[in-house]
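Hi R.,

Here's the chain you asked about this morning:
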Amino acid sequence: MILTDTHTHLYSSQFQDDRDQMMQRALHVGVSRFFIPAIDSTYTKKMYDLESQYPQNIFLMMGLHPCYVKPETFEAELLHVETELSKNKFYAVGEIGIDLYWDKTTLDIQKNAFKRQIQLAKKHQLAINIHCRDAFDEVFEVLESERSADLFGIFHCFTGDIGQARKAIDLNLKLGIGGVATFKNGQIDQFLNQIDLKHIVLETDSPYLAPAPHRGKRNESSYLQLVAQKLAEIYQLPLAEIAEITTQNSKAIFGI
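And the predicted structure, written out as tokens:
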């Protein structure tokens, strides 16, 4: 059984004391493909170091996280993203998008950065990996403005309703499903079985959003098995089939 974690921050300092052991736990339960989103330029070296350490398992994205889109630095950061994309192998542009939970004052430059990074993804024929928090309308506005056959990717940590899910799918996006699906008040588990599994990929967003029964604790990629088990219940399918289909979906997005 091969499980694919399509979004995990393995370079996080929360793993500095036991990263190797954490990786072994994940590999032991079948998680063997780890896709790593970027945050900003200060994490780039950590990402490359991780890729060098686990070359068969680690696949990198490049992008500027919306929470790090700041007036004084975002132009330099976008130049960094463009430069790295032109000289190294990446599998998506991400994580990119809009976050209005922490800072609403940067909405205009967040939209600007999001749109420009979508255009970079198209230029390099790469997927996008979307971060959206308290900003569904704003994210969809930008996505609609860039709608085209070469726009595709993952709506990371999808927490919307079924209408928003269908809207994302119509834009050629897979839904990234993680620990929220296991929460009692997560709500997405109530309609996921109405979404064809071909539109779903799995993720942890570790070290964040640990699934039940670990909610509130540090998340790690081995817990992806708990998300897969929840989907097996929702779709009434064997765990191995959930793993196979969602991994194939990830291959369609990332090209590997």
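The chain has a mean pLDDT of 97.

Let me know if you need anything else.
M.
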